[in-house]
Each structure stands twice: as C-alpha cells, then as structure tokens.
Structure to design on (319 residues):
C-alpha cells in the first residue's frame, strides 16, 4: 500500500483552520504524487444529484459559503479530483490523502467540510460491479453521510467508531440523556444489521480502538467483504483541536496491523484530523497495514475504567 496524494489535495486551502493545507505538510516525504486519469465527475454522479453538483460548482464560482467553507474557484476542481484520487486508491489498494474530506456529505447536502462523499462514491462504484464492501470509519465524528447512503443496503457493511454527542450528533446531547442514540441505528429493510455505530466517551484511548475491531471481527468475516475501505479520520488523536479522545500513533499502527491480519484487500481515505501530526498518523496506520516495522515513538494510551465501561455498553447496544 502506497500513500498517494495530488497537487490539489495537498494545496487545497479548505477553510484554513481547522481544515487547511497544513494538515498535509510534509506529505511529499512519505507519499507519492499521482495524477488520476479517471473522470471524477462521472464517479460523483453515481451518488450525488445533479442539483447538488451544480450547487458546489456555483459556490466555488461565486465565492460562496458551503459546508462551513468559504469556497473559491479551486474548490470544485479539488473536490472532483478527490473523488478520482479515492478511486485510484480503492482500485490499487492504496491510502489516498483525500482533501476535501467526504464522509459527512449526503447525496444532496454538503456539510462538515465535505462536498462529495469520497468513500461512498467508490463504495457505490464497487458495489455496482458486484463487490461487497466493509467500511471502517474511525474518524472521531460519525460519518453520517456514508451511513445514510448505505443504510438500506446489505452489500455495504458500515462500522463507525466516534465520540459521543459531538458533530453531527450534538443535538442529542442533553442533561437528561446518558447515551448517544446513534448506537441504536442498525440499518433498515435489507440493510438491517449492516450498520453499526459505536459512540465512545471523551478520554477513550487506544484500547477502545483495538477492542472495537476485535469485537466486530467475527461479523466482518461472516459478511465476507471483497474489500475493506477505511475512512481514516485522525481527529481521535490526542492532540486534535476539535475532539477529546486520546488515540496515539501507536494505536493507529496496531489498528492497521489488525486490519492487515484479516487478509482482505484494503484501501484507505483521509477524512478529518485537525492537528499537525496528521501525516505522522497516516504513516503509522499504513505501516501497520503493510506489516512494516512500527515507526511510532509513542506509548499506547489506556482508557479509564469508567470510560471502558460506557464504551462496552455502547458495544452491546451496537450488536
């Protein structure tokens, strides 16, 4: 697995802070620049409506606000190129540094810095050719767009590990609500049981990341996917500016190693992560996926007992 990026993904300015080009500073030292030759717009049309595509295009042309981003003429080309880069990763078994990110975008709505849902776009293209896909979304924010797109599908197994009561689910937070209800969303119709959401409390460490995958390994093996796609947000990292989790680079390395041992073709896409160690986190995850020596210099983090107890309650509710 190579780490791949494009000029657009590296230089796209986003909203500068927190989603800015600083996130990929230094990526050229560990990544390979590519120029995908596939029509990203055609891929996007497999998931997103024409009206939605036109809205993103207009926002860029007229310097409008969309998805909490002040758009410009580079926004639409970068978003289209991100989809093409995602496909390059999915078909080549690589890790793509996709910017703008994608997992909050629905077929008709841009939000959370996301215009087009890169993971859903490639998963849908793979599904249409008869593949079964397992999506492991470890971004600290739930990928509500990806969940919605495949909520009724039995060909895509969506698993999300995310901090409780934060965007996009902070409306659920209240003084009287103890548990984030996303844990009770399991899919609908033919897709019943093929969506699993596991919220985690603030302070969750690497042990949670590892136990999440260990818990769902039998279900993944029963589903028997042709490919695994990792929506790799690194906002669960202990230095993140937006969230309150404490994953380490050691944790991402161990997670990658565990996915490798499933023996299923895998690719990864960058989602969130709002700190200056994003590139180091990518390197750690991909080293684990490749079976390389551990490049990290951090000890694994451990959750407090009350954090683990609540996490395990969420695991039971998720199924």
């Amino acid at each position: 697995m190579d780490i791949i990026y494009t000029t657009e993904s590296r230089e796209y300015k986003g909203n500068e802070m927190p989603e800015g080009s600083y996130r990929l500073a230094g990526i050229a030292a560990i990544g390979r620049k590519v120029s995908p030759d596939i029509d990203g717009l055609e891929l996007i049309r497999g998931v997103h409506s024409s009206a939605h595509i036109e809205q993103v295009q207009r926002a860029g042309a007229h310097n409008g606000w969309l998805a909490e981003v002040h758009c410009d003429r580079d926004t639409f080309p970068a978003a289209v190129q991100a989809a093409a880069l995602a496909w390059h990763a999915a078909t080549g078994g690589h890790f793509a540094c996709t910017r703008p990110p994608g997992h909050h975008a629905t077929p008709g709505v841009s939000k959370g810095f996301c215009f087009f849902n890169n993971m859903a776009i490639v998963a849908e293209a793979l599904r249409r050719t008869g593949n079964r896909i397992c999506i492991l979304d470890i971004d600290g924010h739930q990928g509500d767009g990806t969940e919605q797109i495949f909520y009724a599908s039995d060909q895509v197994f969506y698993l999300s590990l995310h901090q409780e009561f934060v965007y996009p689910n902070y409306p659920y937070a209240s003084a009287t609500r103890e548990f984030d209800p996303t844990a009770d969303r399991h899919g609908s119709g033919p897709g019943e049981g093929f969506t699993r959401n596991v919220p985690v409390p603030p302070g969750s460490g690497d042990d949670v990341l590892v136990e999440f995958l260990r818990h769902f390994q039998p279900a993944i093996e029963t589903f028997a996917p042709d490919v695994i796609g990792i929506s790799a947000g690194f906002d669960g990292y202990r230095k993140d500016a937006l969230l309150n989790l404490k994953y380490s680079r050691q944790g991402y390395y161990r997670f990658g190693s565990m996915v490798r041992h499933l023996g299923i073709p895998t690719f990864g896409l960058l989602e969130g992560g709002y700190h200056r160690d994003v590139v180091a986190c990518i390197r750690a995850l991909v080293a684990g996926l490749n079976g390389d020596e551990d490049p990290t210099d951090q000890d694994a983090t451990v959750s407090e007992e009350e954090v683990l107890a609540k996490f395990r309650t969420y695991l039971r509710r998720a199924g």
In short: The mean pLDDT is 97. The CA atoms of residues 237 and 247 lie 5 Å apart. The beta strands are 3-5, 32-33, 65-66, 69-70, 95-96, 133-137, 156-163, 195-200, 227-232, 266-270. The chain is about 35% helix and 15% strand.
